[in-house]
Structure formats: C-alpha cells, structure tokens
Amino acid sequence: MPKYVIERDVPGIGNATPDQVQAISQQSRSILNRLGPTIQWLHSYVTADKIYCIYIAPDEKMVREHAEQGGFPANRVSEVKSVIDPTTAE
C-alpha cells in the first residue's frame, strides 16, 4: 500500500501544549477509526509552523478525506516513491 507525506501548515504549532497536541491526536485517531483499517497514521514531525505526517493509505483521496473530516489542513500530499538513508550509499 502506498505511503504518503502530508505537509500541514499550522502556524504556531511548535508552541502547542501537550494537552493541545493530545487533543489533535485524538481527533485524528477518531477519524481514522471511522474511515477503516486501510488508512494508517504512522507518525508526525512537528516544526515551528508545520506538521509533516506519514500515512499509509490506498490513495491520496483517502488521505484528503481524513483531513477534510478532521478539519486538518493538507497543504501538500506527496506519495513516497522510495526511502534512502546513510546505508543507501553502501
């Protein structure tokens, strides 16, 4: 199943409290549970003004449906074509 990187513009998210981060996470999980088992949230990276989420989903449409239902921005959705790391050079 394809993997996606979702870039979400969320001004000030880097200053969110633990309670705010937990509430966002709970909202996301609730939507994922409703959408069914074919979409999975693996993890996210939070920066000062963006969240970069890694998802597995059958297609981009489902990723965008999750964002719409949750009220989350999905400013850019990119399908991962390959993964590289330092061992790729060997």
Quickly describe the structure.
This protein has 90 residues and is α+β, with helices and mostly antiparallel strands. It has helices spanning 18-35, 60-70; strands at residues 3-9, 40-46, 50-56, 76-79. The chain contains two helices and four strands, in the order βαββαβ.
Secondary structure: elements and pairs:
Layout: E1 3-9, H1 18-35, E2 40-46, E3 50-56, H2 60-70, E4 76-79
Antiparallel strand pairs: 1-3, 1-4, 2-3
Helix pairs in contact: 1-2
Question: What would you say this structure looks like, in words?
Answer:
Helix 1 (18-35) packs across helix 2 (60-70). A hairpin with a 3-residue loop joins strand 2 (40-46) and strand 3. By secondary structure, the protein is of the alpha+beta class. It has helices at residues 18-35, 60-70, and strands at residues 3-9, 40-46, 50-56, 76-79. The mean pLDDT is 96. It is built from two helices and four strands. 32% of the residues lie in helices and 28% in strands. The radius of gyration is 14 Å and the shape is globular. Strands 2-3-1-4 form a four-stranded antiparallel β-sheet, covered by helices on one side.
